[in-house]
Amino acid sequence: MVDFAARDIKIPANLLPSDGRFGAGPSRIPAAHVAEIASCNLMGTSHRQAPVRALVREIREGLADLLGIPAGYEVVLGNGGASAFWALATVGLVRNHAAHAVFGEFGAKFAKETDRAPFLAPSTVFRAEPGQLAVVEAVEGADAYCWPQNETSTGVISPVAPVAGAAPEALTIVDATSSAGAVEVDFAGIDVYYFSPQKAFASDGGLWIAVMSPRAVARVEELAGAGRWVPDFLSLPIALDNSRKDQTFNTPALATLILLRAQVRELLASGGLSASAARAAAASGHIYTWAQERAFASPFVERPEWRSPVVATIDFEGVDATDIQAALRANGVLDVFPYRSLGRNQLRVATFPAASVDDAAALTASIDYVVEALA
Predict the structure, then answer these.
(1) Less packed terminus of the chain by CB within 10 Å, N or C?
(2) How many CB atoms neighbour CB 332 within 10 A?
(3) Cβ of 172: how many Cβ atoms within 10 Å?
(4) CB 296: neighbour CB atoms within 10 A?
(5) 3-class DSSP state for residue 256?
(6) What is the DSSP letter of 304?
C-alpha cells in the first residue's frame, strides 16, 4: 500500500518537467495541436466530403514522406487501432501459417490471434522472457513472419530486417505501434509496417495505419479471392479501397485525424524521421545513463543494444517504485508505471518526440528528490 507520506512530498517547481506526461500511450499531445481541433472547422462534418478527405490525403502523403516508403508501397488506414489490425492481418494477410517473435505482451497478443484462428495452422512462436529479445527464424511452411519493432510493455527494441531463409512468398509483418515516427526503419524486405497514432504521433487512439508493399497488397487480393469469409469491418480489401479514396470504411474520430496531421507536420518541419529518432534516443539515453549511475536504479533491459529508444524501463532496489509514482503523480508527473502484468518494482518512461531531453532530465532530477525524501 502506498504510504501517504509519498503523496505529501512537494517537489520544488524548478526541478519539475515543463510537461509531466510520460505515458507510453496515450502519449502527451502538444497543446497547440489540441487547439487545431477547434480552429480547423472540420469537427462535425462528413468524412466522405472533400475537406476531410483532403485531411486524410495529407496524412497519407505526409507519412509516406516522413517514413521514406519505397515506390509502390501504400499507406492504408482504418478504424480500431493496432489491436484491431491483429485481427485484420489474421484474416486478411496470413495464408495458412504465421511465425512470431514474442518478447512481451503485445507480440504475444498478435500470436494468440493467429494461433487460435480455426482456418490457420498452429502458429510457431519464438519466445523470450521479458527484458530479453526473441527473433524469428525461417520455418518450413510459414507464409507470414511477425514481431514488434519495439515492445511497449518491456522496453525492448528489435531489428527490422528480412528473415533469412524464409520462403520467397512469405510476408514480413512488423508492429511499429510505439516506434513508428521515432525510430528509423529500412523497408527493404518489409511488407507490412503497422501502427496506431497515440504514441510517437501524439494523437488519440482508435485508428490503425499500415504501410503495405505490393506483395502485401497481392496477398490481400489473393485471400479475398479465395472465398475466406471476413466481416466487412475486418476486411483489408475494403480498407484498401477506402484508403485509396482518402477515407475510412466507417466514420473515423476526426479529432484523432486532426491531431495526427498536426504531429506529422511537426515531425516533417523539425528535421524528419532521423531528427525525431535522434531526439528520442537522446532523451532515453539520458534516463539509462542516470539509472546506471544510481545505487537504487538500473535499466531493466540489461543489453544496451536491446534497450528501446522510446520506452525506457527502469528497475528500483531499496525503494518502492509505487511510492515514487505516487509522489510524482501528486506533483503532476503522470503515467510512469510499469506494464500491469510484469509485476516489477519498476518505472516505465516514454520518450516519444513530443517529449524533450530537458523534460527527461527534469524527470530524473525529480525522482532523485523523491528518493531522498522517502529515505
Answers:
(1) N
(2) 13
(3) 23
(4) 18
(5) helix
(6) G
Helix ranges (H only) for the chain are: 4-7, 31-39, 50-67, 81-92, 105-116, 214-225, 236-244, 254-269, 272-292, 321-330, 357-374
Residue 2 pLDDT more than 70? no
Tell me the residue type at 355: A
Q: How confident is the model over 181-195, as a mean pLDDT?
A: 97
Residue 89, H or E segment? helix 81-92
Radius of gyration over alpha carbons of the chain, in Å?
21
Average pLDDT estimate for 220-241: 95
Q: pLDDT tens for residues 87-97?
A: 999 999 999 99
Q: What is the pLDDT of residue 282?
A: 97
Beta bridge mates, 148? 175
Check residue 4 and give its pLDDT: 59
Predicted confidence (pLDDT) per residue in 206-226, tens digit: 999 999 999 999 999 999 999
Return d(Cα 358, Cα 373) in angstroms, integer: 23
Q: Is 6 exposed, middle or buried (0-12, 13-18, 19+ CB in 10 A)?
A: buried
What does pTM read for this prediction? Answer: 0.96
Tell me which DSSP letter residue 370 carries: H
Q: Which helix (H) or strand (E) holds 211?
A: strand 207-212
Residue type, 52: V
8 Å CB contact between 20 and 354:
no
